[in-house]
Amino acid sequence: MARRLMTIPGLGPVTASAMAASVQDISAFSGPREFAAFLGLTPGQNSSGGKERLGRVSKMGNRYLRKLLVVGAHAVLYHRKPHEDALRSWAKKLMQTKPFKLVAVALANKMARIAFAIMRGKTTIAQIRRDRRHRQRPRAAQESRVTKR
After folding, report:
1. How much is the pTM?
2. Contact 44/56 with Cβ under 8 angstroms?
3. Distance (Å, rounded) from C-alpha 64 to C-alpha 139?
């Protein structure tokens, strides 16, 4: 499990082994958002009247794993320039409008959700990327679609 988790950028041997040791039964979580909430990486909700309001990150979960994920996200952001994968390009785009540490926590949240998918599916990040590419429609099919009014 730890070896598969180490395929995620920013997750080294310490973080991967701590996550594998802390979470034995991934099926206890209903989905990736609940797993990220277990780590304390999701914003608190203050919703009323059908209007959804998201606040600050709750910090109510596993403090050690959250700290390791945020430190790993800092490392990914510091070394984002030579890489062109989807995770880092998403972070680069977010860095244009948001502060560095906010993007680091958002990236840690995304890394936790990817870790959930890897732990649940017994797969690696390379296989997730490959499956995502095969699920997307070809570019020509998207451009040839005509909208009717």
Report:
1. 0.77
2. yes
3. 43
User: Residue 76 domain-assigned?
Assistant: yes
Percent of the chain exceeding pLDDT 70 equals: 77
Residue 120: domain span: 2-144
Q: How far is CA 3 from CA 11, 30, 71, in A?
A: 10, 24, 19
- Does 149 reside within a domain? no
* Distant-in-sequence, close-in-space partners of 116: CB < 8 Å, separation ≥ 6: 26, 29, 31, 32, 35, 36
**H helix or E strand, kind and range, residue 25:** none
Cβ neighbors of 115 (< 8 A, separation 6 or more) are 5, 8, 11, 19, 35
Listed residue (112, 104, 90) closest to 31, CA to CA? 112
Which has more confidence, 132 or 142?
Answer: 132
At residue 17, the pLDDT reads 93
- Number of domains within the chain: 1
Mean pLDDT of the chain, nearest integer: 80
